[in-house]
Amino acid sequence: MGPIRSAERPAGATPRTTHGTTHTTAPRKPDLAGATRAGKDVARSTFGPDSLVLSRAARDGAPDGAVPGLTIVADTDRDGRVTEADLAARADWRWNGTGAFVIANLDDDDADGVADGADAKVNGAADEADLATVKIRLDAGTLERAKHVRVTPVENGSGGHIRLFHKTSQGWKPVQGALSEIGPEITLGAEATTFASKTWDGHAELKVEARDEAGALIASDQARVRVAPFILLPNSARTTEVYVSAGHPNYENAAFREGLGAAAKAAGARPITHRTSSWKEMWMQDTMEVGYTQLPGRAPQHVVLGGLRGADSFGPRLLGKDTGYIQVGKNRGIANGVDDWADWMGNLEVSPPVPGYPLGRVFYGRNTDTGVTLHPEVVAFLEAQQVQKPFWIDTGFLTIKHVDEIA
């Protein structure tokens, strides 16, 4: 059968189910953003050592090397607003403390079949809601002298993962070179085009400079941001949608679908049937996993982690408003007769909340006889999110060798 979409919020996540397994949907206010205020001890053990400081702010909150005369600030205290309170630590970024998030804008709010983050435009009000707010404030003296104001995202690695937009009198414009309008307060919107990975740690410095007509530097500042993590949803939440496949002559699941549909409706969930002729889509649990990402104070954006088998046709169809779709890695073509199914999504699960991990922990199968695990690139991607530390379970004694058979 299929995954399940859910509506409850176990320890910071609302479930969404997609293949017969229950996956949690994003919370309206996840622990990721709020744990630093309500439950510091949990947050500390969940997100890493409290000593993780990526840049040290000066006593007044300004970063080292800043030239007074302007400030750039985002939602560093993670309360969903940009206020004066965010000035104190805009150059710091800690999992367990302060630092602003942006999200990987991977949904398709304008229904054009392409993820919103794939283009350099704001695709309407729904897409605007996916932008993290960043404010630049110019002192009177800077405003009087400034001819150009430039904002540049600086990342380690190849860059290009953070995109900025400028809210102008003509609407949102992509930031390309100097800003087209300068005032005492400048509003920017920030998005990421991807999640953190083994090649990018998810961090960026937003560096702003004001220069006079001769090109001399008048004022500068910077703020650190990180892309919000991709969070998988556990099976422990109340289901809102159940996906099940039908159509292949060998499925022989008409009675099963009828019973499942009745049970789903009785539980307040909506059964959705995927018509397919592929035997590989018999168990939709093997086709995808459902997660989410979220900005503090904003609605969650679901993200489907798609399968790599070349026969997983349902997941991409979920791309739409508030739902993104990603793939990580490529089909390895394992055909040793033992581990052929290692990379199917039935070999990936997430636990309910456990001590130290209020969002649960990711786990996957490993055949200890051959050393083959779930696709290493998928594992590395999940490790890069840093909030649901993955671990493996020995599945070598199972015929199919999937963790969903014992979880």
Q: How would you sum up this structure, described in words?
A:
It is a single chain. With 407 residues, the chain is an alpha+beta fold. It folds into three domains: 1-26 and 233-327, no CATH class; 31-227, Immunoglobulin-like, CATH 2.60.40; 331-407, no CATH class. It contains six helices and 20 strands. It has helices at 31-34, 40-47, 125-128, 140-145, 254-266, 376-385; strands at residues 3-6, 16-18, 70-73, 100-102, 132-138, 148-154, 162-168, 171-174, 185-192, 203-211, 217-227, 231-232, 239-246, 270-275, 288-293, 301-306, 323-326, 348-350, 362-366, 391-394. The strands form five sheets. It has a five-stranded antiparallel β-sheet with strand order 3-5-9-7-8. The protein has a four-stranded mixed β-sheet with strand order 2-1-13-14, with helices on one face. A four-stranded mixed β-sheet has the order 4-11-10-6, with no helix packed on it. A hairpin with a 7-residue loop joins β15 (288-293) and β16 (301-306). The protein is elongated. The two termini are 16 Å apart. Mean pLDDT is 86; it is low at 4-59.
